[in-house]
């Protein structure tokens, strides 16, 4: 989906307004992804069941808190760049490039299998955004790299539940939440 970029009247020093708008457009997609991730994590927190319930239930809330802080930081960077932040649910749904999370009440390992796929997508797109801002805006690049540090750590927490003693990941090769959930459930 092509991003509509409106050029602000001002931006941060060392960027021209067009560059500021381009960086803000990249960040707008990250804002949508982070908002979606926070909501998805909370959805999982409420819908996990099974023998690992309490461990996973309690593991998810700190992730939600950190991701929500990244949402705010990203939105404030967009505003700092002189652009308008689109933080409504309608804008997120209209502009996202991924499907809605599709797993309801399910075993913890099934949710973790689905979250493995979700985190893979979020992290890959965050890395691309960091790469796309590296030359133009080192401040935004630094912010995104900081996010990646924590997002990748959270992804490891998820994957630790899906890995067996020989190092095989139950969700290897899965590209959809449903296949990740099925692989996780099958491995448990």
UniProtKB/TrEMBL annotation:
Q: In which residue ranges is the amino acid composition biased (Low complexity)?
A: 178-188
Keywords assigned by UniProt, alphabetized: DNA-binding
Q: Which InterPro entries match?
A: DPS_DNA-bd, DPS_DNA-bd_CS, Ferritin-like, Ferritin-like_SF, Ferritin_DPS_dom
Q: Can the keyword Chloroplast be found in this entry's annotation?
A: no
Instruction: Map out region (Disordered) in residue numbers.
Output: 169-188
**Record field: transmembrane:** none
Q: Name one GO molecular function term.
A: oxidoreductase activity, acting on metal ions
Q: Where is each Ferritin/DPS domain found?
A: 25-165
- Say which family it is in: Belongs to the Dps family.
Q: Report the protein name in the record.
A: Starvation-inducible DNA-binding protein
């Amino acid at each position: 989906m092509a991003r509509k970029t409106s050029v602000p009247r001002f931006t941060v020093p060392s960027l021209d307004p067009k560059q500021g708008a381009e960086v803000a457009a990249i960040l707008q997609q990250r804002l949508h992804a982070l908002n979606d991730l926070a909501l998805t994590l909370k959805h999982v927190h409420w819908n996990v069941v099974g023998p690992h319930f309490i461990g996973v239930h309690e593991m998810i809330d700190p992730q939600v808190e950190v991701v929500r802080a990244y949402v705010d930081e990203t939105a404030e960077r967009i505003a700092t760049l002189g652009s308008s932040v689109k933080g409504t649910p309608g804008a997120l749904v209209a502009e996202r490039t991924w499907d809605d999370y599709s797993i309801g009440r399910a075993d913890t390992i099934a949710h973790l299998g689905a979250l493995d796929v979700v985190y893979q997508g979020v992290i890959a797109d965050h890395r691309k955004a960091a790469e796309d801002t590296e030359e133009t805006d080192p401040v935004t690049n630094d912010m995104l790299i900081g996010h990646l540090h924590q997002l990748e750590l959270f992804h490891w927490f998820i994957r630790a539940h899906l890995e067996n003693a020989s190092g095989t990941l139950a969700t290897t090769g899965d590209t959809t939440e449903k296949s990740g959930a099925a692989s996780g459930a099958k491995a448990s």
